[in-house]
Amino acid sequence: MRAALALALLALAGAADAQRIWRCGPDGRLLQDRPCHDGEAMTVRDERPSASDEAAAREVARREMALAEQLRDERRAREREAVTAAAGFVEPEKPAVQSVLKKTPKKAPRKKKNRRD
């Protein structure tokens, strides 16, 4: 959104309605305001947004800022709740190990097998 607003402001800052520029260089990536030997002339128009477009862009920016503030406040509230919950955390009681062992039947010892060498 900031990029769109910046482009709108740059468009407002332009002085001429149409300008002639030249695309130069082997791949045409160099743009300049005077002719070059291998260049191609182009006409660039300064198309400024209408007043209604500017007003719509400002309204969108205002709504996005309000939404960002709302989301920030919600995040901060969740973080406060998480800190409060973490501070009040109590470990659950550990089960009594002996009661579990008493209920477990013991296995009979294994008999050793005789090996013949």
Automatic annotation (TrEMBL):
Stretches of Basic residues bias are at 103-117
Annotated signal sequence range: 1-18
- For the region Disordered, give the residue spans: 87-117
For this UniProt record, give its keywords in alphabetical order, as a comma-separated list.
Signal
Please indicate if the UniProt record lists Signal as a keyword. Answer: yes
Q: Which domain of life is it from?
A: Bacteria
The protein in question is named DUF4124 domain-containing protein
Native source species: Rubrivivax benzoatilyticus
